[in-house]
TrEMBL record:
<dbReference type="InterPro" id="IPR007679">
    <property type="entry name" value="DUF569"/>
</dbReference>
<protein>
    <recommendedName>
        <fullName>DUF569 domain-containing protein</fullName>
    </recommendedName>
</protein>
<feature type="region of interest" description="Disordered">
    <location>
        <begin position="107"/>
        <end position="129"/>
    </location>
</feature>
<dbReference type="Pfam" id="PF04601">
    <property type="entry name" value="DUF569"/>
</dbReference>
<feature type="domain" description="DUF569">
    <location>
        <begin position="1"/>
        <end position="102"/>
    </location>
</feature>
<dbReference type="InterPro" id="IPR008999">
    <property type="entry name" value="Actin-crosslinking"/>
</dbReference>
<feature type="compositionally biased region" description="Low complexity">
    <location>
        <begin position="107"/>
        <end position="121"/>
    </location>
</feature>
Length: 129
């Protein structure tokens, strides 16, 4: 959790493609973008305690005020993953917006989804992951 302090703004980078998670203008979808210097790629960390003291993070879009969430719909009949989307955080019991930090990366903490999606924050200058 030391890499995800409450209130911190960060950008979520796909290390494989060198792109950043971008909140799309429709307020629903997210995509990958090469443009780091955009409000649409900034996400604010909100830390929450759940399930008897387990720590999770919510990732709040600086651009549209929605949270990074997992869609309940599967990507396809072949692939068991779920799309990342922008969602509304309406209830403390809501699981689709919870992310579990692990070093520089986060994984979806949704119990209803059988697969987790990993995103990583870009480390501060001068540090290595």
């Amino acid at each position: 959790m030391e890499f995800f302090p409450d209130g911190m703004h960060l950008r979520l980078r796909n290390r494989k493609h060198g792109t950043y998670l971008h909140a799309d203008e429709d307020g629903v979808y997210v995509s990958l973008s090469l443009h780091r210097a955009s409000l649409n790629t900034a996400w604010q960390v909100h830390r929450v305690l759940r399930d008897g003291g387990n720590e999770y993070v919510l990732l709040h879009s600086a651009a549209y005020g929605r949270y990074l969430a997992l869609s309940p719909d599967q990507v396809s009949l072949v692939y068991v993953g779920h799309h990342a989307v922008q969602g509304v955080y309406e209830s403390p019991e809501q699981d689709d917006v919870l992310w579990r930090p692990s070093g520089w990366t986060t994984k979806a903490a949704t119990s209803s989804c059988s697969t987790s999606r990993t995103v990583s924050s870009a480390p501060p200058p001068g540090t290595h992951s």
